[in-house]
Structure formats: structure tokens, C-alpha cells
Design goal:
The chain has about 280 residues and is an alpha/beta fold. The protein has nine helices and 13 strands.
Length: about 280
């Protein structure tokens, strides 16, 4: 069997930057998981004594606090600042951008439409930067726009890991009803590159393995994209989840990985596949 890695996969700039920041601040705590990868978080805990606080109440008075890659709500950041913690900001710059746009456009009197998952930590942070919380709306489908009390002026941003073609549907729907629309394409370039590379590989592979956190939006998107061209596409967090039956009768295995997946996990998956099935070529 042949194994081929996608031409673009794994750690994005923001995740790589966040991990380097955390490693430089041994003994600190992250407020919320730094990234969406449990194995990498455990590596930071064991190797660098990086703690994890899920709630503000879990943070001790003398803790240095690393802000997660996805950012946190503005009011929670204010609480940490008032408590005089040392704050190390590891928010991805691609996430900071929509935060700043929402704040500025909200100040300028625009209704805010955010294309994204309302329960995703990135979106919880972005929406908190609106000056008026009742004039900021999170949507996933164009139909949701019909019932929103939007002003004549609307500013639109997207969750960084969403598919561009879905974002366009939201924008097109708004163009039919609003007089002024400011559209900000805040989808991350790394997301484009990983998605395009996975889609191209899935066309040729007869089994696709997508590696990443089960709660990671960008990894789930990769899996969905691969499924369009390769029915036998599987989403796993690590090599322990591989099943021998997936590779029976297969001759070409493609591998992609989410933006929060480190190379050492990818290599562990490759090693495990080699134990399951004879591999003649890895490219």
C-alpha cells in the first residue's frame, strides 16, 4: 500500500506560535485548552508544567495566565487584568482580526453578522467585542437572516475555519435586503491550503485518514471535505483509534491533519498503519 501526505496539513501559524509561547512560560496556566488537541495539551502539561483552568475560579492569585489560541471573551480578559495576573496572550492574530473588526464596525453603527458556530470558543470571543450585544448575531445558514432585526448597515465576518463557499451564501443573502454591507473575509489562509490539499488527495485515495481533535472545527471540516470524494474517510485523534478493517483491500492511503495536530502524532499514525498493512511507499 502507498501512503501519501497532503501537500499542506497540520500545525498552522497560530497554533505553532501558541505552543512556542506556552513552552517559553513553564509553570503557567492556560485559560481554556490552548488548542483543540488533548494529546498535545498533555505533552505541555508533562513536559512544561503547563496547567489548565477551565473557569476563572480555577485560576489562582499568583498564576501567570496564557490566553488560548481561540481567544476569550472581552469581559473575561478584563477580569484577569483587574486581578493583576501576568497575562501572556497567545491568541492567534487571525482571530484577533475579527475581534478588532467587530469592535470598530459596532462603534460605527453597523449591525454585526458573524458566520460561525455559536458555541465555538473563537466565536464567543469575537461576538463579545460588539459594543451592543443585542445588535450582533451569529448565524450558520442564510435562512437565519430573515428574522434578524438588522440595521440598513451590516458588517459581516466569518469564523476563521469556515468554508469560503458557505460564507459567500451568507453574504449573497444579505445583499438582497440591505443597502450597505461591509464584508470582511476573516477565513484563515492556512484553512484554505489544508482544505484544498485534502480535497485533491481524497480524489485519488481509496482510504483517507484525517488526524485531529474531535472538537476541532477545522479538522471536522477536513473530514467532511474528504468524504465528498472518498467514502472511506475517517477522523481520528491518534493512532489508537485506527482499525485494521479500514485498510483491507486498500492500495492508496491519504493522510491529512488539522491545524492543531503536531507532527509527532502524524508520525505515530503512520507507524501504526505500517504495523497493520504492508506499506511500499510513503510520499
Amino acid at each position: 500500500m502507498k501512503i501519501q501526505l497532503a501537500s499542506s496539513y497540520g500545525f498552522c501559524f497560530g497554533v505553532k506560535r501558541a505552543i512556542e509561547i506556552a513552552e517559553e512560560h513553564q509553570g503557567s496556566v492556560t485559560y481554556g485548552p490552548l488548542i483543540h488537541n488533548k494529546d498535545e495539551i498533555n505533552r505541555l502539561k508533562v513536559g512544561f508544567n503547563i496547567g489548565l483552568a477551565e473557569k476563572l475560579d480555577d485560576i489562582h492569585t499568583d498564576d501567570a495566565v496564557v490566553i488560548r489560541t481561540h481567544g476569550i471573551p472581552k469581559n473575561e480578559l478584563s477580569v484577569l487584568q483587574k486581578q493583576d495576573h501576568k497575562i501572556i496572550d497567545a491568541t492567534c492574530p487571525y482571530v484577533t482580526t475579527p475581534q478588532n473588526i467587530v469592535e470598530k464596525m459596532s462603534e460605527d453603527g453597523y449591525s454585526i453578522v458573524i458566520f460561525g458556530d455559536k458555541d465555538h470558543p473563537e466565536i464567543k470571543g469575537v461576538v463579545s467585542y460588539a459594543i451592543d450585544s443585542e445588535d450582533a448575531f451569529i448565524v450558520l445558514e442564510p435562512e437565519e437572516l430573515d428574522v434578524l432585526p438588522l440595521k440598513r448597515k451590516v458588517a459581516v465576518v466569518s469564523q476563521t475555519t469556515k468554508k469560503p463557499e458557505d460564507f459567500v451564501k451568507i453574504v449573497n443573502a444579505l445583499m438582497l435586503t440591505r443597502k450597505e454591507i461591509r464584508v470582511f473575509n476573516t477565513i484563515c489562509n492556512a484553512t484554505f491550503e489544508n482544505q484544498d490539499a485534502a480535497a485533491e488527495l481524497a480524489k485519488d485515495a481509496d482510504v483517507m485518514i484525517v488526524i485531529g481533535g474531535k472538537h476541532s472545527s477545522n479538522t471536522k471540516q477536513l473530514h467532511s471535505i474528504c468524504k465528498r470524494d472518498c467514502d472511506d474517510s475517517y477522523l481520528i485523534e491518534n493512532e489508537k483509534e485506527l482499525e485494521d478493517s479500514w485498510f483491507e483491500g486498500k492500495v492508496f492511503c491519504g493522510i491529512s491533519a488539522g491545524a492543531s495536530t503536531p507532527d509527532w502524532i502524524v508520525q505515530n499514525v503512520i507507524n501504526k498503519i505500517q504495523e497493520i498493512k504492508q506499506v511500499d511507499e510513503i510520499v
